[in-house]
Inverse folding.
């Protein structure tokens, strides 16, 4: 548990000496407190400066009257002022709007949610309070990131740091949560960009293994991970990356036994012609691409191209997991061969163009779709595959610019963590999350979103948005494992708009330190310091 004072009182009514709440004092209530904030049937709105996961610790000196206060947490100023039901404000997953009674000489902690802003209202006009401090009491995993990315572009550094803070908040209870306000759950597909980013930040990531185990134990076959067939495919991909590419650990006997049963289940869903038909479960890639055959038949065909591509990627990865039987490997090859029989047409969706590219369909059509409209059509969940696919075509400058446009857009709207979803069109005539909603303008938090994340229910701290970290490390710094379970690294930088870059990258052998400096002719000087046992290959560009 850590503690943080508010950086500002954003609004106050019937309150005196509110600036006292910003002054650091002993974290202990006493019998003779003098520097108090007085609230007489009024209200306060506090700004803690950045998104946190936890609650507030109120040190109350004196209470007159009933002493009941209503506490509302918000990821935005608008949300912390909203009643339940207004613009879809909810208490789902974590109670963020409730009433409690304060007491004389008390030190009490309330709430457990994701928030930056807190509003406190006296429920009764007769209530008078003398408050010493109101600290944010937040959960912070003990491990600090050891992977770093420092460039000459401060916006890019801010994108890296904001994504790292997002992921750090979502590392809770020994697992990766989806979000800290809503969806405090282990969603296994969402884990893919989280684990790729976490590997760049921490190297060994026990939360990945714990999350894989948790999802497997919950998804008794013939069920699917989280009820999503595609999430069972992501589970295979994540496990393969962890044990084969990163060399983080060996697969367990339980995992191998599960895969041996899961693969025939997937094979049953693939026809001889290569069509993938899941008879049960919710077929999902990401929210912006979501469709159903009965809704939009043409879009469904494109959507299923992505699903077939994901199936091919999963089989390509799974076959390399050590400990699988020869029969299981045979099933992987057969599934892969079947899904490759059917063409994977893509017309518009960048998510599907990216998955098809990664699955081997490196076509000019997919390239054009990825580049069309810049950051239009991105999603926070699929930004890592989309940007990575652009880089595979050699479009490093374009991918870098799109990344800055998209993630920089959230920063311009006040983000201190990255969101469940974002569309650049939301920015037009919209208030930032650290501004009160204004008449005649859109509320970036309360007026947008769709599906399960409409309006204030929208999570503004979602772990899957941190995949941008992996893109920056792998495609910009160009640092990737190429063999020997993470002990052979290739360095192939494409700095795009950067002139200088210093990174630290965790490997099984220790920290790899690399400095890049772009020369006038566009080439890059690369100097590295490798730990003992690590083989480094410098690819010339």
């Amino acid at each position: 548990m850590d503690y943080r004072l508010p950086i500002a009182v954003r609004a106050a009514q019937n309150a005196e000496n509110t600036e006292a709440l910003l002054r650091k004092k002993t974290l202990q209530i006493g019998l003779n407190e003098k520097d108090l904030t007085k609230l007489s049937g009024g209200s306060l709105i506090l700004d803690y400066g950045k998104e946190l996961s936890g609650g507030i610790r109120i040190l109350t000196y004196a209470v007159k009257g009933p002493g009941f206060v209503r506490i509302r947490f918000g990821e935005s100023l608008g949300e912390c002022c909203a009643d339940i039901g207004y613009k879809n404000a909810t208490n789902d997953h974590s109670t963020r709007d409730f009433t409690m009674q304060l007491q004389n000489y008390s030190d009490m902690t309330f709430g457990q949610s994701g928030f930056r802003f807190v509003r406190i209202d006296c429920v009764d006009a007769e209530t008078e309070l003398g408050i010493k401090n109101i600290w944010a009491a937040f959960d912070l995993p003990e491990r600090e990131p050891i992977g770093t990315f420092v460039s000459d572009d401060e916006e890019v550094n801010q994108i890296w740091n904001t994504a790292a803070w997002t992921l750090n908040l979502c590392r809770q209870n020994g697992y990766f949560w989806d979000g800290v306000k809503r969806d405090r759950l282990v969603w296994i597909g969402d884990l893919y960009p989280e684990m790729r980013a976490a590997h760049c930040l921490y190297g060994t990531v026990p939360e990945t293994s714990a999350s894989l185990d948790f999802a497997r134990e919950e998804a008794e076959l013939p069920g699917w991970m989280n009820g999503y067939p595609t999430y069972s495919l992501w589970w295979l991909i994540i496990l393969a990356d962890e044990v084969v590419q990163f060399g983080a650990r060996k697969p367990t006997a339980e995992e191998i036994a599960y895969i041996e049963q899961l693969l025939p289940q997937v094979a049953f869903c693939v026809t001889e012609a290569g069509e993938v038909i899941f008879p049960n479960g919710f077929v999902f890639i990401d929210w912006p691409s979501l469709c159903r055959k009965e809704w939009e038949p043409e879009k469904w065909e494109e959507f299923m191209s992505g699903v077939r591509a994901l199936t091919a990627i999963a089989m390509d990865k799974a076959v390399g997991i050590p400990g699988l039987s020869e029969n299981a490997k045979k099933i992987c090859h057969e599934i892969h061969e079947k899904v490759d029989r059917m063409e994977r047409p893509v017309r518009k969706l960048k998510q599907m163009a990216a998955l098809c590219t990664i699955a081997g369909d490196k076509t000019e059509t997919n390239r054009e779709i990825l580049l069309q409209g810049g950051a239009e059509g991105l999603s926070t969940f699929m930004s890592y595959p989309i940007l990575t696919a652009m880089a595979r075509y050699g479009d490093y400058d374009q991918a870098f610019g799109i990344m800055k446009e998209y993630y920089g857009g959230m920063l311009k709207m006040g983000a201190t963590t990255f969101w469940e979803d974002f569309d650049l069109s939301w920015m037009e005539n919209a208030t930032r999350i650290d501004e009160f909603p204004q008449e005649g303008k859109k509320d970036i938090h309360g007026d947008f979103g769709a599906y399960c994340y409409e309006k204030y229910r929208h999570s503004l701290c979602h772990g899957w948005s941190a995949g941008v970290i992996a893109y920056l490390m792998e495609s910009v710094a160009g640092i990737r494992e190429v063999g020997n379970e993470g002990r052979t690294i290739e360095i192939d930088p494409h700095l795009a708009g950067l002139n200088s870059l210093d990174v630290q990258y965790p490997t099984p052998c220790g920290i790899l330190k690399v400095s890049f400096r772009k020369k006038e002719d566009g080439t890059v000087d690369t100097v590295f310091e490798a730990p003992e046992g690590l083989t480094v290959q410098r690819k010339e560009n």
Notes: The chain has 13 helices and 18 strands. The mean pLDDT is 95.
